[in-house]
Amino acid sequence: MVDSLTEEGHEVVVIDNLDPAAHDGRPDWLRIDVDYQWGDVTDASVWRAALPGCDALCHQASKVGLGVDFADAPAYVSSNDLGTAVGLAVAHELQFSGRIVLASSMVVYGEGAYTCAEHGAVRPPPRSVGDLEAGRFEPRCPRCGAALQPEMVTEDAPVDPRNVYAATKLQQEYLCRTFAREHPGVTVTALRYHNVYGPRMPAATPYAGVASIFRTALAQGTAPRLFEDGGQRRDFVHVRDVAQANKLALVTPQAVTGAINVASGRPSTLLEMAKALAAAHGEGLRPRVVGGYRLGDVRHVTASIDRAVETLGYRPSVLLADGMAEFATAPLRRPPRRH
User: Do 61 and 41 touch, CB atoms closer than 8 A?
Assistant: First the structure.
């Protein structure tokens, strides 16, 4: 995003705390034409140094992924929700009036959309430990117990966060919307990212996306390991397409408010993604389905991108096979230091 915006003549200020969970020092690709403010979003003084003169705020700062366990909850709430609240409080202090583009997430939906042959659209409850332990991974109709057909989620679907990260992302949306209601001239576009991958992802950390975890395994000569049966459906969207969506949200002549799904529009299973990445890596390693589960995971969540196409002019351009072929050898952030 920084590259794309500066190359088109925009002046960019970046706040980043270089979280050691994802960084080993400053990245190698910093630009000389960008103002970097090295600090944490929970520190009001950092925002006061960065925000004056800005006519738009593109808020990407978050701790991501499922983390290790619930002990990570305070860190997620601090980085994601407290950091957002502090930034908005400074924006209030400085009388900011402009666009806010927020990096939200598809995790706010919980399970994706499903239909039952008998009962139509239904919302399955969280999968039980008993079902997961028994290898019954597919959600069932909450009314009749029948098998369900996964569908594409639209932005008007009910929100149902099912892990700490998801809860904090939804709270970010609520905080920004509240700020906009109380500040004339402020608009909020909440871009609900699906599974983002591409160059510069952090390596070797539980706080990265699944594509990065698989890529790190391959680089270490280890086959990617998939929970459940590998049939979980996701939408893997390349970082360049995500950057495109953000830029469009920032510069469209008329601000687009509300939630917008950002995805490729071409869902795949985790096993299909892992196979594409392993094939591109080219060392003969095949993904291994190991069973098991993570309780905070959902089974299927894929999105309709119709609203992004219609309102922003968004056009995702990177196919999964092409993106994974690039990602297999693309530079990642250095692994975090071990202490």
Answer: yes
